[in-house]
Amino acid sequence: MEIRSDILVIGSGIAGLSIALKAASMGRVVLITKKEKAESNTNYAQGGIATVVSSLDTFDLHIEDTLHTGVGLGHRDSVEIMIKEAPERLNELIEIGVQFTEKNGLLDLGREGGHSRNRIVHARDHTGAEIERALLHAISIHPNITLYEDHIAIDLITEHHLGEKISRDAPIHCWGAYVLDVKNNVVKKILSSFTVLASGGVGHVYLHTTNPSIATGDGVAMAYRAGALIGNMEFIQFHPTSLFNSGSPSFLISEAIRGFGGKLKTRKNEEFMLRYDSRGSLAPRDIVAQAIDIELKKSGDEHVILDLRHLDPAIVREKFPLIYKTCLEKFKIDITTEPVPVVPAAHYSCGGVVTDLLGRTKIDNLYACGEVAMTGVHGANRLASNSLLEAIVFAHRAYKDMSTKKINHVKDFPAVPEWDDSGTFDAEEWVLIEHDRKEIQQIMWDYVGIVRSDLRLDRAKRRLLLIKDEIENYYKRTKVTEGLIELRNLATVADLIIRSALQRKESRGLHYTTDYPKKNDDAWLHDTLMTCIDA
User: Fold this and answer.
1) Dihedral of the CA atoms 191, 182, 490, 437 (nearest 10)?
2) Residues 200/214, Cβ–Cβ less than 8 Å
3) Reduced to 3 states, what is the DSSP secondary structure of residue 93?
4) From 120, 330, 459, 470, which residue has the greatest number of CB atoms within 10 Å?
5) Same domain, 7 and 107
6) Which residues sit opposite 53 in a β-bridge?
7) Is residue 124 annotated as a catalytic residue, yes or no?
8) Alpha carbon distance 182, 400 (integer Å)
9) Which helix (H) or strand (E) segment is 41 a member of?
10) Does a cis peptide bond (omega within 30 degrees of 0) precede residue 344?
11) Distances (CA, A) of 9 to 20, 174, 269, 488
12) Domain end (from 386, 402, 418)
């Protein structure tokens, strides 16, 4: 089955919805999403959007906070663009109906770790869900947008699918993607003039994550196989405070709670963060997560606690209604009267598909925005609430670049073959292969987590190589399924993270290794970049 469009957008988080809505002014947009349209990391984002709107704040302060948190690897040009263009993008969200929390007629601004000023624009503690609501409504009434739920991209269509060998210096073009319609079990060929990867993060490569189940690194894996440049995959942000023993995905306890005055303590009720950073519980996420990891290893405890008992309970309930209600009703914890047990969990990838300042990748007519992209704004660690901001700013810039180019209007596509779905599905063998998913997650959690070493990374690399081979062999001789596509992508992304971590011979930001416990600015102040053409 063949579908033709002017723009194909893969992913329905804030980045995908934003660019789809704007690109619809150019022509026909096909928007695909793996599950339901609202299932995305955006929908789970509690904190907010970091934006300079207060007279007590400045662009320069936000820029320096971002670069400082990125520990030398943030790209100043992309950081400046993101922060200076933020107010205009925020106003666009308000115009389409996003209802941010106000106080005395002005936006209510919170503060999170690493920020020197109150600048977090939020919708209480469910900002992502509120943004998704407004964007999805705008999408639903636009006549130029067709949304396909339960459609998972398999691979990007490039010269490779035309039988051409891709060399290092040859240009690569993207003409859309092969996509599995999960409900009808049919592979569709979607051809498009422009393709946008907005497929989100990689959280489920780890055993414990705050991400929804769709976060299996599909966009990064597809782009890598197609020959795009991938960067800084070693920098995986572990959110310091997910609710202990809350399942998968782990329930996130927003950083805004610490910004409001919540204190991290050991189970013996001792504050410990000042031993690691003068900012205490408001230190950036890499420092807090590493500190918790050290404390747990010292004590043998399974979790630390986040203490809100000294705060006004009425205000806590008012500011954090979702967290309060979920903890009380689902987990039987009253956060106003009881200590909240928390542990770190994989949360956000600072690396991804390398783009320029206009969202363009190395592959012609392929753009990337949101968590799947590496724009350079995060460096070695993401400043809290810069993720939604990055998504809307660079989605807009990608749209503006697309709008200057010619749309093929279905005339100039090459003769792309239909998907070859020959092969048989072996249910018995799939039972064995399916276990590889848990094994990948366990390997990554044990050996490529918050604290690493060359010994652990080498062990992970060897074990993963065997798993990758098993999966690829099975993939080549059977019909594709949703589970198999995700499993193959998880193995690819895990391999990229491990290889990136082995390249960096220092500790910096989110990458901490006991073999090189200090950062070395002179030798390693650069991004780690990989492409499958060199592999």
Assistant:
1) -170
2) yes
3) helix
4) 120
5) yes
6) none
7) no
8) 33
9) helix 41-44
10) no
11) 7, 13, 49, 21
12) 402
d(CA 229, CA 355): 8
Q: What is the per-residue pLDDT for 43?
A: 54
CB atoms within 10 A of CB 271: 13
Q: Residues 341, 380: one domain? A: no
Cα→Cα distances 16→34, 242, 372, 395, Å: 13, 26, 11, 8
The answer to whether residue 58 sits within a structural domain is yes
Pairing between β-strand 230-231 and β-strand 352-354 as defined by DSSP bridges: antiparallel
Both 335 and 390 in one domain: the answer is no
Non-local (6+) Cβ contacts of 55 within 8 A are none
Which residue type, as a one-letter code, is found at position 173?
A: H
CB 452, CB 512: distance < 8 Å: yes
Q: Which of 4, 124, 285, 508 is catalytic?
A: 285
d(CA 257, CA 342): 13
Q: Looking at the domain assignment, is residue 163 inside a domain?
A: yes
Contact 10, 195 (CB under 8 A): yes
Does residue 111 sit in helix, strand or coil? coil
Least confident of 406-415, 418-427, 428-437, 492-501: 406-415
Say how far apart CA 362 and CA 340 lie, in whole Å: 45
Distance CA 103, CA 316 (A): 15
CATH code where residue 388 lies:
3.50.50.60
Q: Return the SS3 of 277.
A: coil
Classify residue 470: in a domain, yes or no. Answer: no
CA distance 474 to 480: 10
Query: In this structure, are 43 and 179 located in the same domain?
Result: yes
**Structural domain contains residue 386:** yes
Rounded-to-integer distance, Cα 203 and Cα 222, Å: 16
Q: Within this chain, do residues 330 and 396 fall inside the same structural domain, yes or no?
A: no
> Count of CB atoms within 10 A of residue 299's CB?
13
Q: What are phi and psi of 281, to 5 degrees?
A: -70, -10
Per residue in 474-529, pLDDT (tens digit) is 999 899 999 999 999 999 999 999 999 999 999 999 999 999 998 887 778 899 99
Residue 117: which domain range? 2-201+363-402
Same domain? 90 vs 124: yes
Residue 317: strand, helix, or coil: helix
Beta bridge partners of 110: 120
CA distance 148 to 37: 8
| Strand duo 109-110 + 120-121: pairing | antiparallel
Query: Which residue is it, tokens 């009434």?
Result: 141
- Residues 56-88: tens digit of each pLDDT: 999 999 999 999 999 999 999 999 999 999 999
Q: Which residues of 4-35 are buried (b: 16+ CB within 10 A; e: fewer)?
A: bbbbbbbbbbbbbbbbbbbbbebbbbbbbbbb
Q: What is the CATH number of the domain that holds 320?
A: 3.90.700.10
The pTM (predicted TM-score) of the whole model is 0.90
Sign of dihedral through CA atoms 485, 486, 492, 495?
A: negative
Residues 143 and 184 in one domain: yes
Number of domains in the chain: 2
Instruction: Find out whether 107 and 101 touch, Cβ atoms under 8 Å.
Output: yes
Residues 253, 321 within the same domain: yes
